[in-house]
């Protein structure tokens, strides 16, 4: 009678919590026999691409994981309670271990404050989330018209596959509440995923393909680069007396522009941007033109000396043939 009076003072949720967690141990796996495998279904929902740091090759994104599994110890019948679901804190129950395998700052996060939903049949749904910083290999060959493919890898760290197995039933990452990024555009509506249930430690990786929005770079990188290149190439039409002065000023401004471009790309030798190759070649051609101008001007001022024979042979004998020119000696 005393127990019935105590139970009558408890709410439906309090009574069910007392019934389920009286002898519950959250450290033990949610299976009755030790040879059973805990099957965990994992999905990922992307909320926002915060930043893709090209120089440090780090992808910063916001999202949450959707994990579902079954805990036989947390099931109840209608005779025990009429509740359709029960919400509990994540640290009160056994939760699947998962790590961000390719994380930058850390591979584990603090997810105990996220609530879990328990169904009468023992099915548990847990949605931990936060900001994920992962490594991303960058290819800048076609900068600023480049497309990057980044991988987010989630997997078990301590539980082997025979103890806990991660799998997924969906072929795409959810983007129900996704907010667009001003610099990067998601070019694939469905995100590819790969699961590896046969590995010693199971893990799932999601591939995200991003395309750079190049309007800003066209106005601040491409157009200034073309205009500066036009100024440099116009030196070929200047008179010799002006070519050196204008060329030095143009080369200095072009060098400053190259420094500005170099600050926006990663310091790696794996991939060299074609834009940098173009700008460097333009500056090299202009430098050679200025050196040739100084050399020709020096020869022009030496009016009291005859042209050496080897110069005549080089210019009239060899260079004339290469340039398809005829000469009169």
Short description:
With 329 residues, this protein is of the alpha+beta class. The protein is built from 6 helices and 12 strands.
List the topology elements.
Elements: H1 2-9, H2 12-21, E1 38-53, E2 58-70, E3 86-89, E4 99-100, E5 115-118, E6 123-126, E7 129-135, E8 147-155, E9 164-167, E10 184-186, E11 192-195, E12 203-212, H3 215-233, H4 240-262, H5 274-301, H6 309-322
Parallel strand pairs: 1-9
Antiparallel strand pairs: 1-2, 2-6, 2-7, 3-5, 4-8, 5-6, 8-12, 10-12, 11-12
Helix pairs in contact: 3-4, 3-5, 4-5
Domain Neurotransmitter-gated ion-channel transmembrane: 221-327
GO biological process, one term: regulation of membrane potential
Membrane topology: Multi-pass membrane protein
Tell me the series of helices and strands, N- to C-terminal.
Answer: HHEEEEEEEEEEEEHHHH
Poorly predicted runs: 1-6
Structural class: alpha+beta
Residue share in β-strands: 15-25%
From the coordinates shown, what is the CATH architecture of the largest domain?
Answer: Distorted Sandwich
Tally of helical runs: 6
What is the C-alpha radius of gyration, as a whole number of Å?
A: 34 Å
What is the CATH T-level topology of the largest domain? Acetylcholine Binding Protein, Chain: A
> Percent helix among the residues?
25-40%
Largest sheet: 7 strands, mixed
InterPro entries: Neur_chan_lig-bd, Neur_chan_lig-bd_sf, Neur_channel, Neuro-gated_channel_TM_sf, Neuro_actylchol_rec, Neurotrans-gated_channel_TM, Neurotransmitter_ion_chnl_CS
Membrane topology: Multi-pass membrane protein
Pfam families: Neur_chan_LBD, Neur_chan_memb
Keywords: Ion channel, Ion transport, Membrane, Transmembrane, Transmembrane helix, Transport
């Amino acid at each position: 009678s005393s127990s019935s009076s105590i139970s009558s003072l408890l709410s439906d949720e309090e009574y069910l919590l007392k019934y389920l967690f009286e002898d519950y141990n959250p450290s033990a796996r949610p299976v009755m026999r030790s040879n059973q495998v805990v099957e965990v279904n994992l999905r990922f929902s992307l909320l926002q691409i915060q930043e893709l740091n090209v120089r440090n090759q780090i992808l910063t994104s916001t999202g949450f994981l959707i994990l579902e599994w079954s805990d036989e110890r947390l099931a109840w019948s209608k005779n025990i309670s009429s509740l359709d679901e029960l919400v509990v804190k994540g640290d009160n129950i056994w939760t699947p271990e998962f790590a961000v395998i390719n994380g930058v700052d850390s591979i584990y996060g603090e997810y105990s404050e996220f609530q879990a939903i328990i169904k009468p049949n023992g099915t548990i749904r847990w949605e931990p989330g936060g900001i994920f910083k992962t490594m991303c290999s960058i290819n800048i060959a076609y900068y600023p018209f480049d497309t990057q493919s980044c991988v987010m890898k989630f997997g078990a760290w301590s539980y082997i596959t025979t103890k806990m197995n991660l799998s997924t039933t969906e072929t795409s990452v959810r983007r129900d509440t996704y907010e667009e990024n001003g610099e990067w555009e998601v070019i694939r509506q469905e995100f590819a995923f790969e699961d590896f249930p046969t590995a010693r430690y199971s893990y799932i990786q999601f591939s995200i393909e991003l395309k750079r929005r190049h309007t800003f770079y066209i106005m601040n990188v491409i157009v200034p680069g073309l205009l500066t290149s036009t100024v440099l190439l116009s030196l070929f039409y200047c008179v010799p007396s002006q070519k050196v002065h204008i060329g030095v000023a143009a080369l200095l401004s072009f060098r400053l522009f190259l420094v500005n471009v170099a600050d926006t790309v990663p310091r790696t030798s794996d991939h060299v941007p074609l834009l940098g190759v173009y700008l460097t070649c333009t500056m090299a051609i202009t430098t050679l033109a200025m050196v040739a101008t100084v050399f020709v001007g020096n020869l022009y001022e030496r009016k009291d000396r005859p042209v050496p024979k080897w110069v005549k042979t080089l210019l009239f004998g060899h260079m004339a043939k290469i340039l398809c020119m005829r000469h009169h000696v």
